[in-house]
């Protein structure tokens, strides 16, 4: 029997079900806690425009006696409300009775000031990156850990791709009849089989959307975002700074931004954000009349922005160092609708336009997938799909934990046991190499784990056994 079994094992080709199951188990063990976190924070972020509108509602229906104050006067009041600050950008109110939001820079940080249009009183001052939805964004993409957090999320996303691909292989029907247990769970089942079908079927339905979310979130991450930028800059048509932020980077100080040319590549900051912060440095140490002259141009540009019908929220930013024209840009969450105009301050003539149609193909694709990732590409339906996907992802996690808890031995992690003679396959090695090339952090982490296994864990047999890395024990016949 032993000889027959060994020959049967030799004839089997990879992928081996047990081997794929082990990859799926270890990938899920690492990824699922992150996935739960991303599902919760991402679900909140889906409704960013709605939440920010609600948060700003106390400043949108104000009592105003007489005409509104000039935008230049509102900016002066905002600068005075944050001593030592300089003007960065002006965001027009959403309603005729709403407060203008003026963003000023001080010590490398941006502060948002809500100015009453009648009294010019600063009703609220808050650090811009401490606003609720900015914190949710940092929690989602960086775990509030900056670059290190962004790399952790990217690593979880990379192994998440492995988890989904191996999960689809485990789901693939093998001689079963009917759709029960494949496309829908058979609710009449009990015990572990019920949880297995619930996990497999739900995982099937969320796999494609989740895989899209993982890959579409990569351009924001520190490592993969710079990796994509490096690749895209090898073609002249796509060279230059990307217009999406690469995560994990702190906001740059105005001095740093002002010292860079407008076309420079600033990781972690979009081109519009660079322009918005740069004027702070250009006005420091200069006479007050220079600032006053610039702000007179702002008064002329408000009706220009209204006539251009720029999708809100709108940023009106003074020129960067060495430039003359102001910028009027849309920062709507649906990125394909964004547009940036450069406008001459004296005449109000549009001197340049940068919109979705003018972008290269790589930036077009990235902007579309980012808008879909954030739930803004096709409205409420986009939000509903991603919200349902997040709920189902939580169900997949719960069912996985229940299955693991029921089958695990009392003194071990409970990983599927490896074969005594694991199969090796060239197609498998090529698939792993391709994934490592596509997802560099996956490849590096895999090499690190192999090194730890071959050096440290081999000296710790008890730990290897607990982790499920040791093969099944083969009982030798007793010699009488």
Automatic annotation (TrEMBL):
Protein name (database record): PepSY domain-containing protein
Signal peptide: none
PANTHER family: IRON-REGULATED INNER MEMBRANE PROTEIN-RELATED (PTHR34219), PEPSY DOMAIN-CONTAINING PROTEIN (PTHR34219:SF1)
Transmembrane segments: 23-47, 152-173, 193-215, 384-405, 425-452
Keywords: Membrane, Transmembrane, Transmembrane helix
Organism listed in the record: Methylomonas albis
Nucleotide-binding in keyword set: no
């Amino acid at each position: 029997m032993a000889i027959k079994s060994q020959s049967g094992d030799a004839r089997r080709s990879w992928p081996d079900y047990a081997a794929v199951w082990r990859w799926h188990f270890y990938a899920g063990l690492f990824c699922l806690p992150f996935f739960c976190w991303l599902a919760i924070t991402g679900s909140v972020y889906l409704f960013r425009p709605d939440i920010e509108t609600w948060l700003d509602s106390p400043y949108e229906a104000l009592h105003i006696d007489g005409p509104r104050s000039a935008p230049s006067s509102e900016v002066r009041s905002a600068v005075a409300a944050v001593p030592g600050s300089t003007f960065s950008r002006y965001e027009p109110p959403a309603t005729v009775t709403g407060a203008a939001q003026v963003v000023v820079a001080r010590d490398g940080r941006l502060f948002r000031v809500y100015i009453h249009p009648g009294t010019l009183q600063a009703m609220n001052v808050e650090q811009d990156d401490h606003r609720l939805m900015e914190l949710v964004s940092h929690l989602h993409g960086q775990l509030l850990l900056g670059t290190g957090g962004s790399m952790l999320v990217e690593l979880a996303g990379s192994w998440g791709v492995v988890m989904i691909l191996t999960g689809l292989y485990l789901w693939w029907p093998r001689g079963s009849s009917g759709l029960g247990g494949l496309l829908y769970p058979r609710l009449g089942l009990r015990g572990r089989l019920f949880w297995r079908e619930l996990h497999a079927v739900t995982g099937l339905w969320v796999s494609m959307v989740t895989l899209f979310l993982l890959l579409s979130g990569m351009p924001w991450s520190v490592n993969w975002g710079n990796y994509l930028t490096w690749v895209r800059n090898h073609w002249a048509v796509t060279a230059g700074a990307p217009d999406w932020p690469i995560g994990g980077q702190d906001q740059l100080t105005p001095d740093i931004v002002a010292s860079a040319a407008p076309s420079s590549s600033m990781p972690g900051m979009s081109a519009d954000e660079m322009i918005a912060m740069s004027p702070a440095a250009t006005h420091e140490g200069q006479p007050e009349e220079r600032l006053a002259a610039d702000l007179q141009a702002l008064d002329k540009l408000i009706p220009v922005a209204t006539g251009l019908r720029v999708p809100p929220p709108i940023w009106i930013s003074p020129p960067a160092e060495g430039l003359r024209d102001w910028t009027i840009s849309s920062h709507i969450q649906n990125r394909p609708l964004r547009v940036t105009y450069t406008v001459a301050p004296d005449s109000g003539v549009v001197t340049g336009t940068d919109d979705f149609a003018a972008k290269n193909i790589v930036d077009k694709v990235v902007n579309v997938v980012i808008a879909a990732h954030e739930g803004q590409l096709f409205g409420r339906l986009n939000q509903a799909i991603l919200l349902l996907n997040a709920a189902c992802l939580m169900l997949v996690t719960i069912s996985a934990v229940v299955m693991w808890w029921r089958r695990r031995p009392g003194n071990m992690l409970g990983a599927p046991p490896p074969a005594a003679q694991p199969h090796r396959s060239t197609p498998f090695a090529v698939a792993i190499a391709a994934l490592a090339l596509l997802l560099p952090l996956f490849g590096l982490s895999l090499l690190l784990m192999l090194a730890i296994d071959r050096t440290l864990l081999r000296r710790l047999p008890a730990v290897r056994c607990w982790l499920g890395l040791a093969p099944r024990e083969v009982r030798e016949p007793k010699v009488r």
